[in-house]
Design a protein that fits this description.
Length: about 60
């Protein structure tokens, strides 16, 4: 990074476990499992995933 030829980084939001229960403060009242939500989109399940996607993008924008 000091030479400016490989300015790359990884933005890790949470642990790399598919069964991790995460608390998205300000998004949900209780911890949720993102991975399980992606496999169960019956009814309005996609709305919860959309909230998480928006949260991730807001955090990324804040970082930049």
């Amino acid at each position: 990074l000091q030479m400016g030829i490989t300015n790359i980084c990884t933005f890790m939001v949470g642990p790399e476990r598919w069964d991790a229960t995460l608390m998205y403060e300000g998004v949900f009242d209780k911890p949720v499992q993102h991975h399980n939500m992606t496999h169960n989109q019956k009814g309005d399940g996609w709305k919860a995933l959309q909230k998480i996607d928006i949260f991730h993008m807001q955090q990324y924008a804040y970082l930049l």
